[in-house]
Specification:
alpha/beta, 6-stranded parallel β-sheet, 5 helices, 6 strands, globular, disordered C terminus
């Protein structure tokens, strides 16, 4: 009996045309293709969060929340902006958690990663993101860190991780996350069946 692949929602915190974090996310989706059915969630068209809009959700927000609600787990890939997460990513997290009682995040497993050209990559942004997701939004955030220092040759022309050591590290990261996420999915399925 073959297990169905987990539905992985990938949220990239950058709307740059040539985003290095999107390239990393796409490479991770390929590495995890044997474990996950990946869906990139569009967040760059969401209006700035405003509680006044909650009674009649804008179409982009309704679409985003419906797509996110159908995911079993989430991978957040973030750049670092001024030692924190980008406004684009925070806006998506806020919309996903609102209106009160309709959060698409609560109880879902999550993992974080990101890249930048700096020496500490996106380490501080990821720490901030993990705090938001785990402490405030109610997600189950996988332990372990994946801070990737970006170099132009990191991702090749086919979209694969070119460096063998980094590819092995990221394959291990995405496989660990698949096992971690499956624990929550299996628990939820057992509870529904009971």
């Amino acid at each position: 009996m073959t297990m169905a692949k987990l539905k992985l929602g990938i949220v990239v915190g950058s709307n740059r045309r040539e985003s290095i974090n999107r390239k990393l996310a796409q490479a991770l989706a390929r590495l995890g293709g044997d474990k996950f059915e990946a869906k990139f969630l569009k967040v760059d068209d969401l209006p700035l969060f405003n509680q006044d809009l909650e009674s009649d959700l804008p179409a982009a927000v309704a679409r985003f929340k419906a797509e996110a609600a159908g995911c079993d787990a989430f991978l957040f890939v973030t750049p670092e902006h001024n030692r924190s997460i980008p406004a684009l990513l925070k806006n998506a997290i806020d919309w996903g958690s609102r209106p009160y009682g309709t959060s698409v995040w609560v109880g879902k497993p999550a993992a974080t990663t990101g890249t930048s050209g700096g020496a500490i990559s996106s380490a501080v942004a990821q720490q901030h993101l993990r705090q938001i997701l785990g402490n405030f939004v109610g997600m189950h955030v996988m332990g372990g860190e994946a801070y990737i220092a970006f170099k132009p040759e990191l991702i090749d022309a086919q979209g694969d991780v070119a460096d063998e050591k980094v590819r092995a590290f990221l394959k291990n990261f995405i496989d660990r996350f698949a096992a971690y996420a499956a624990r929550f999915t299996n628990t939820a399925a057992s509870e529904r069946a009971a």
